[in-house]
Specification:
651 residues; alpha/beta; Rossmann fold; 2 domains; 7-stranded mixed sheet; two-stranded antiparallel ribbon; 29 helices; 58% helix; globular; Acyltransferase; Acyltransferase_3; transmembrane helix; SGNH; membrane
């Protein structure tokens, strides 16, 4: 394609801006720190949005000049993106072949294909949410943002060319495109949050914010240094608020990404002459970090994901986190010096591009090959009959808050309200935290079999107590709405039985607090039971052990695997676990006796024995998703006294 005519408002080419490299440094620091130490920068994930604004600005500035053809543009994009990406893809796959299980290698192969074809965001949209528990175990998850960028590179030049051919105002096209994208994002935030996060339609407005700075360049140039300084300060304020205050469940990216997007746009618009740009963003350390930000972003996440795979998904130990950051910096610097720089600047252009595109194609084929033929795990030999490593691994990736097939779900004041059935005159209310919600699959199975005789309504939230005796931890303040939502449901539905379940030790806290909390609990129970007209059932504490956790059944090393064979084959003694919960069990039974409620002990049916708790089902599949939450595959088949409540006719 030949060079295109100039834009209606031609902007002269600008020299290198060190402050933009500094802004890149801020963005990559935010992302890396969020991934390694999420408590330090809880909103650090918005660094990716800063990158999108920068890309919108730089790419629009580049293709706005008659000297730059689209062929040249795409050639430069390949030379910029492919070298480091190929290094990370091949290194990640090579490391995974050393200690991953076959099903993990298969998934990694598909992720490698998606990464090499710049479709990682589409792949991630179809497989998991960015903030899901299993996402922490995906070594190439972070390539979703590269997919969004590459799709922008295909979309935006084509739209510019179309606008020129039709003599449309590019400024108006940019504004309309941004507004449409933002509207799509707002809608998707409520109805399709995964698509909102991963797909480009709801992200384009962030690129348009950067593009608009180029199109409004003449007006920005007229601003005085004073106003530029004020703008840069406001931009920094927005970014600081974003990285410290944003949370993953705050309708992100729309509309809350306005904070990082506005911050980045204000800093770019302020130009390189402000004090903040000259002495902070354009300082040599910031410029250097910005210059390696792309490979640093690529390298850091596979290191974190493999650390999670080996040592479990938990808050990374500080020394380990420092080691990951240091190694990421070293690898990024080496990649920039010995891979990016030679292939981007010092080799023949045409030959390099053909070679890089060919390498991406071969890498994509390698990924598809691993997807189809992942190999076989022989690390444990043949002395583990009845134990499936693949099933244990898949159980480790299970979620712990299952929405079932026949459950109609809505969210009221932050709580999940799930309804199975439709008879308003014959209902059972299940209320509590995730340990209560885990029984949803059994209710759903009875409904599918036509055996459910009641409508079952779940009111639940992670770490939410069914009784108003607990002060929710920071980040779980929505749990305060539990009593209000319960009352709303009870007013609307004819509920004859209420089933409660929770991590009771957390709900009631240490024993010295029990007497006061017992009084509040019994007052609420009398209200809920309508002074004896409704039946209340407590699900008693269920077994808890780290040895139930699939992540602890298989111990990973970077060269081999080992099994907790004693627990898997012989089970875990029940008596110590019962003793651990004995005081709480007695306390709950006292409350039940005082209020005329009943209790339901599920320990024996979960464990399969009175004396020993077996963590595996008969087919070798784990019963638990972690140390306490049962997996849907297990609960949906579990016959217990709970069934008597669900299949009995209404009283």
């Amino acid at each position: 394609m030949s060079a295109s005519p100039p834009l209606e408002s031609k902007i002269n080419p600008s020299p290198y801006r060190g402050d933009i490299d500094g802004l890149r440094a801020f963005a990559v620091i935010a992302v890396v720190v969020y991934h390694v130490f999420p408590r330090w920068l809880p909103g650090g994930f918005c660094g990716v949005d800063v990158f999108f604004v920068i890309s919108g600005f730089l790419i629009t500035r580049q293709i706005s000049h008659r000297e730059i053809s689209f062929v040249s543009f795409y050639t430069r994009r390949v030379r910029r993106l492919a070298p480091a990406l190929l290094c990370v893809l091949l290194a990640t796959v090579g490391a995974g072949l050393l200690f991953l299980l076959p099903n993990e290698i298969s998934a990694l192969g598909m992720a490698c294909f998606a990464g090499a074809t710049f479709l990682s965001n589409v792949f991630s949209w179809q497989t998991q949410g960015y903030f899901d528990r299993a996402a922490s175990l995906q070594p190439l998850l972070h390539l979703w943002s590269l997919g969004v960028e590459e799709q922008f590179y295909l979309f935006w030049p084509a739209l510019i060319a179309f606008s020129r051919s039709k003599a449309f105002s590019l400024t108006k096209v940019t504004l309309v495109t941004g507004l449409i994208s933002f509207a799509i994002g707002l809608t998707s935030a409520f109805f399709a949050p995964a698509a909102d996060f991963y797909l480009p339609f709801s992200r384009i407005w962030e690129f348009m914010a950067g593009a608009g700075l180029v199109l409004g360049g003449r007006k920005l140039e007229r601003l005085s240094l004073r106003w530029r300084t004020i703008g840069s300060g406001a931009g920094l304020f927005c970014l600081v608020v974003a990285v410290f205050q944003l949370r993953q469940d705050w309708f992100f990216p729309s509309p809350t990404a306005l904070f990082p997007v506005s911050g980045a746009a204000l800093l770019i618009a302020a130009g390189p002459e402000t004090w903040l740009a000259r002495y902070i963003l354009a300082a040599p350390p910031a410029r250097w970090l910005g210059s390696i930000s792309y490979p640093l972003y690529l390298w850091h996440w596979p290191l974190i994901a493999y650390e999670h795979l080996v040592h479990g998904v938990s808050h990374t130990h500080r020394s380990t986190g420092y080691a990951i950051i240091t190694l990421s910096l070293i690898l990024a610097a080496l990649t920039t010096r010995f891979v990016e720089a030679p292939l981007r600047w010092k080799t023949p252009e045409r030959r390099t591009v053909i070679g890089l595109l060919s390498a991406l194609a071969v890498t994509a084929i390698l990924g598809l090959t691993l997807r189809a033929w992942p190999g076989h795990s022989t690390a444990l030999g043949n002395d583990t009959p009845g134990i499936s490593l693949e099933k244990i691994n898949l159980a480790e990736q299970d979620g712990i808050f299952p929405i079932t097939q026949h459950m109609h779900v809505e969210h009221i004041q932050g709580l999940t309200v799930g309804i199975i059935g439709s008879d308003p005159a014959n209902a059972i209310l299940f209320t509590g935290d995730s340990l209560l919600f885990q029984w949803g699959p059994r209710v759903d199975a009875l409904f599918a079999q036509g055996r459910l005789k009641q409508t079952v309504i779940f009111i639940s939230g992670p770490s939410c107590a069914p009784l108003p005796v607990e002060k929710p931890a920071k980040g779980f303040t929505y749990c305060n709405a539990m009593s209000e939502v319960q009352d709303r449901i009870l007013a609307k539905w004819s509920v004859h039985t209420i089933v409660m379940g929770a991590l009771w030790e957390r709900v009631f806290g240490p024993p010295p607090e029990w007497p006061a909390k017992k009084i509040r609990a019994e007052e609420r129970l009398r209200t809920l039971s309508a002074h004896g007209k409704r039946k209340i059932v407590f699900i008693m504490p269920t077994p808890i052990s780290t040895r139930f956790d699939p992540a602890h059944m298989v111990t990973r090393h970077f060269t081999h695997l080992s099994l907790d064979k004693d627990a898997l084959q012989n089970g875990i003694p029940v008596a110590p676990m019962r003793a651990e919960h004995a005081a709480m069990t007695a306390f709950l039974m006292g409350i039940a006796q005082d209020t005329g409620s009943s209790t339901l002990d599920m320990t024996q049916v979960v464990c399969g024995s009175v004396e020993t708790c077996f963590p595996l089902m008969n087919d070798g599949t784990p019963k638990f998703a972690d140390q306490m939450h049962l997996r849907p595959d297990f609960t949906q088949t579990l016959t217990s006294r709970l069934d008597d409540i669900l299949i009995a006719p209404a009283p």
